[in-house]
Amino acid sequence: MGQQYDIWENLMRLRPEFYKSFWQTAVMLGISVPVSVLIGGLLGVWLFTTNRNQIFANRRVNHFLGFTIDFIRAFPFVILMIVMMKPTRMIMGTTFGPVAASISLSVAAMFYFARLVEQNLAEVPKGVVEAALAMGAKPSTIITKVLLNEARAGLVRSIAILIIATLGTSAAAGLIGGGGVGDLGIRYGHQRYMADVLWTVVALLSALVVCIQSVGNYLAARLDKR
């Protein structure tokens, strides 16, 4: 009982730190996820539509986009954060804080999401696109009303995967002063040998991941027309 009381007392004492860390994580996700969905989505559509036999087929552009996306994705996130420190300082005036960390998170996430979008669009039946072309649909209509509309269930699942991946990546943001729940677990759970804090952070993050994936699956099932 005494040990349990000590654990509970430690967690209650660190409650302000938990609140602060959750807010920092929310800020990082709130900035990086929308940015990566918007820019990464555009990159993914561009990558897919410039592929062979697509509406904007262009071998050179497609190879350049594919190489660039894969090159950035190959960077370990810790290395990417270091590379992005100077651009981040130029944009934000600092490299510390959750907002500054969101820039590196956004760069990593947008190229990751671009490949997810490409895969989702590749699953759209070719016959649907061919039918739209036969009816004289404009390229913009094919992209918005056919490709994105037909792939919407998969895109929702991909956004859920993106949020979860970014949540995991945000734990490394503490290395540049970004803070967050992962950083709390590292500082107190690992560096100060407070196992109760570490396992609490793990439990909270696991619950959050399950909730995000469940919501994503539910929405995707509602949007799936098959």
From TrEMBL:
Please give one Pfam family short name. Answer: BPD_transp_1
Supply the name of the protein: Methionine ABC transporter ATP-binding protein
Q: Where in the cell is it found?
A: Cell membrane
SUPFAM superfamilies given in the database record: MetI-like (SSF161098)
Task: Say yes or no: keyword Magnesium present.
Answer: no
The UniProt keyword set, sorted, is: ATP-binding, Cell membrane, Membrane, Nucleotide-binding, Transmembrane, Transmembrane helix, Transport
GO cellular component terms, A-Z: plasma membrane
Where does the ABC transmembrane type-1 domain lie? 22-220
Q: Which Gene Ontology BP annotations are present?
A: D-methionine transmembrane transport
Protein origin, superkingdom? Bacteria
What Gene Ontology terms describe what this protein does at the molecular function level? ATP binding
Species, as recorded: Eikenella longinqua
Residues spanning the membrane: 22-49, 61-84, 90-113, 155-177, 197-220
Show the CDD domains listed in the entry.
Answer: TM_PBP2
Topology in the membrane?
A: Multi-pass membrane protein
